[in-house]
Each structure stands twice: as C-alpha cells, then as structure tokens.
What we know:
Largest sheet: 8 strands, mixed
Helix content: 10-25%
Radius of gyration: 19 Å
Oligomer: single chain
Amino acid sequence: MRCVVLVVCALVLSACSQTTAGKPQGVVSDSPKAGTSTSGGDSTLQERISWVQAGNSIDLGAYHSARTDNGPATDLKTDIAFVSPTGKISCITGVAHNIEGFDCEVELKQPVPQPREGYGNWFGGFVSYSGQRLTVGQFRGDPGLFINGSGQTLPYDSTVTFENYACRLATTGLTCVNPAERTGVHMSDEGIVPFGCLQEVPESEREPSVGHAYRC
C-alpha cells in the first residue's frame, strides 16, 4: 500500500514540473471564448500587461521594412511590421499616415461574417486596434497599410514595444496591450478576444464597414 502511495505522489510531482515554453503561461492560456469582452478587473489586466512585458525584448531595427511575395523590401521608416512564424498573423503600424494604433491580418478558422453589403472586398480577419477602440472584420477597397506586403518574422516568446503598445507572440497567438489606455487584445486563429475596458458596440451604433466593434 505504501508503494502505491509513493508512485502516485511521484506522478503528481512530475506533472506539476512540466512547462510549456513559448506559450502564454496562466494568463492568455486561460482566455475566454473568442469574441467576448473580458474586463476581468485591474488585477487581471495587470497580469496580462506584466506577462507581455516579460517577453524577450526585440530590437525593432529589423522590422522597419515590408515586402510582397518575391518583391523588393520597402523602407517603412518610423513604422514597423512583423509576421508570425506560421504566417497566420501579420501586423503593421501607420505612424507615417497619422494612423493611431496598428492593423493586423489574422487567418481565422471562422472569419467574422460579412454584416451587409459594403464597398470593396470583405476581410473577416482584419483587425484594427487603437487603445480604446478595436474592430474585427472590415470592407476594404485597397490593401491599406499592407500595400507593401508583410514584415520580418517575429520569433515566438518575443515582445515588441512601440509608442504606447507592447505585443508578445506565443504559439497560442499574439497578445497586445496598451497600459496607458488599460486595454488589450489577444489574436489567434481561434478568434479575437478584447480585454480591459473594451466592450462590444451594438450593431446599431457601429460603422457599417466593420463586423465587430469594441470601445471603452
């Protein structure tokens, strides 16, 4: 009987010692269902901010350019662009165009459905985040900031910091926060999850060109 108890204890200790390097630990791995707002209080938000800031800080020098398939690199000057190793998440800033925040193209398993007829092509995984505002899904008449293609590949467990934003990439997706605005967003092929004070805007109040909208 004593041997059985010892074996069980050993198995429990072994399971507890396992790690999941490169994945969100305890904060993002427990994210709720995509498409729901998760204020979670200041303590939860601060945990997410701390987790993002604890990643391996990346020098932005290599991320000031973008290129299309087999095309030449375009100097983005003050802007940055990066893409995940899988190519499922690609983000770019728009400082040179006086655009607050940044845009991302996310390859979603279930893209946001087109809300109604609109101008241009519908992109169900187009994300725009600007601190107190987040939209998912958008009609586009042009590629916008992505006209020059995508940036360099960002390694897993890396954190990029620019303006008031910080983003950390893990195998479970990209988590971006704006500590000054007390908001953030988690992006993955499973969906887009806002947190902080971001709350979903009713369909009757959001612009017709987007699928989902959130604001503080």
